[in-house]
């Protein structure tokens, strides 16, 4: 609170996992927080995550869409942000093969719409782009850093790589204070149910409560560097407090197989994973990113950031939250 009291932030994707945690972090720091909230047919706007954190009444929501430049410019004009966080995306890798064009439009071109809105209506604002470790894809280096070459392996990753380079270009060509966080996987009780950690913790809670008996998964040999979303949104904020915009890898520096992550969830609930997990090729991907492991050295050195939450503590928190959610239905 206090010294940031006069600052305003605008978050696209405020209704998603990271948007909700980032909104909470910025409200705690005394920011005025605006968010782009696309209309959804089921309930006008998806407020469930903001409600879970109890902050839905403290943010100002604007009607608009990443595909509609006019709506983004109008939002910049009414909100007048000091900081813009572009978190909106079609973010599920699997869906990017069934909807490659939409993924390109939202995740790739959509980011350029936000950059254009900044350039036209709020050029002094600092801009954050949600880049991803998926851009490394078929990596050749055992540990990925800011200098590791990219090799995207999905329509999602290719769209994110375009947005990433456009962010660099707006920084170099137009002097926009634009930074890109290359974030490795990060999870929480607010993670979407289709992503593997939450699918597992929700599945374990259902099995424990007798609502299901099996959990169907794809490639459980894949390895990911998993951290907690609450820790990672802090890195986004720290990047925009730097005088010079730059790109940073945000990761834990530890990689774990899907199998071992699963094991943590099942044993926490006192269950045996082998009694319940069924491998279903339906969840295999046309091209897989087999292993990701990030080197967060630059972020630690320059931003003083490091991951605080262990995978075990996070998965246990997620199982707990899912048991409570399902138990109280
Ligand atoms: P989510 O999928 O939880 O949230 C995505 C957000 O984008 C939602 O608020 C969604 O709105 C919004 N959105 C989707 N399409 C549009 C559109 N056309 N116009 C406006 N808003 C739209 O993602 P996360 O919170 O997990 O991730 C945040 C960002 O970080 C994403 O860009 C993701 O690709 C990227 N990322 C995520 C990582 C992770 O491990 N979580 C790692 C690296 C990068 P609605 O709620 O209405 O659907
Ligand atoms: P990812 O996350 O593709 O890394 O992208 P996801 O949790 O979907 O997959 C992680 C790994 O688990 C394997 N897997 C399964 N995945 C899902 N979803 N469902 C399953 O049943 C299953 N079984 C095995 C996958 O094959 C994969 O190897 C996430 C998203 O948040 C992106 O937006 C973000 O950019 C990256 O993380 C970093």
Automatic annotation (TrEMBL):
Swiss-Prot/TrEMBL catalytic activity: GDP-alpha-D-mannose = GDP-4-dehydro-alpha-D-rhamnose + H2O
Protein name: GDP-mannose 4,6-dehydratase
Record's keyword terms, sorted: Lyase, NADP
Positions in coiled-coil regions: none
EC number: 4.2.1.47
Cofactor entry: NADP(+)
GO molecular function terms listed in the Swiss-Prot or TrEMBL record: GDP-mannose 4,6-dehydratase activity
Gene3D superfamilies in the cross-refs: NAD(P)-binding Rossmann-like Domain, UDP-galactose 4-epimerase, domain 1
Short name of one Pfam family: GDP_Man_Dehyd
Function comment: Catalyzes the conversion of GDP-D-mannose to GDP-4-dehydro-6-deoxy-D-mannose.
Database matches in SUPFAM superfamilies: NAD(P)-binding Rossmann-fold domains
The NAD(P)-binding domain, residue ranges: 10-318
Domain of life: Bacteria
Enzyme class, broadest EC rank: lyase
InterPro entries to which the protein is assigned, alphabetical: GDP_Man_deHydtase, NAD(P)-bd_dom, NAD(P)-bd_dom_sf
NCBIfam families assigned: gmd (TIGR01472)
Keyword DNA-binding: no
Organism field: Vreelandella gomseomensis
Protein's UniProt keywords contain Lyase: yes
């Amino acid at each position: 609170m206090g010294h940031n009291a006069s600052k305003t932030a605008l978050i696209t994707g405020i209704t998603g996992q990271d948007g909700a945690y980032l909104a909470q972090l910025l409200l705690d720091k005394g920011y005025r927080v605006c968010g782009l909230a696309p209309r959804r047919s089921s309930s006008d706007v998806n407020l469930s995550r903001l409600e879970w954190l109890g902050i839905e009444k403290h943010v100002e929501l604007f009607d608009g869409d990443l595909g509609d430049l006019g709506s983004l410019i109008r939002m910049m004009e009414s909100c007048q942000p000091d900081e813009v966080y572009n978190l909106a995306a079609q973010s599920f890798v699997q869906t990017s093969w069934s909807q490659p064009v939409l993924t390109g439009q939202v995740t790739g071109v959509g980011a350029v719409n936000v950059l254009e809105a900044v350039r036209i209506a709020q050029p002094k604002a600092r801009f954050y782009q949600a880049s991803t470790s998926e851009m490394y894809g078929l990596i050749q280096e055992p540990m990925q850093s800011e200098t590791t070459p990219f090799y995207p392996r999905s329509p999602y990753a290719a769209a994110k790589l375009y947005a990433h380079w456009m962010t660099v270009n707006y920084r170099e060509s137009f002097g926009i204070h634009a930074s890109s966080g290359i974030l490795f996987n990060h999870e929480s009780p607010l993670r979407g149910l289709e992503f593997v950690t939450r699918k597992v913790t929700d599945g374990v809670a259902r099995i424990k409560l007798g609502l299901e008996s099996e959990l169907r998964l794809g490639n459980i040999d894949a390895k990911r560097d998993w951290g907690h979303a609450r820790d990672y949104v802090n890195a986004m904020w720290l990047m925009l407090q730097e005088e010079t915009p730059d790109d940073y890898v945000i990761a834990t520096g530890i990689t774990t197989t899907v199998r071992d992550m699963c094991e943590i969830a099942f044993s926490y609930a006192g269950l045996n994973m082998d009694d319940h997990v069924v491998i279903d090729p339906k969840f295999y991907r046309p091209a897989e990113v087999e292993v990701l492991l990030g080197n967060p050295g630059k972020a630690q050195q320059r931003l003083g950031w490091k991951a605080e939450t262990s995978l075990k503590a996070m998965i246990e928190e997620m199982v707990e939250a899912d048991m409570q959610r399902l138990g109280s239905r």
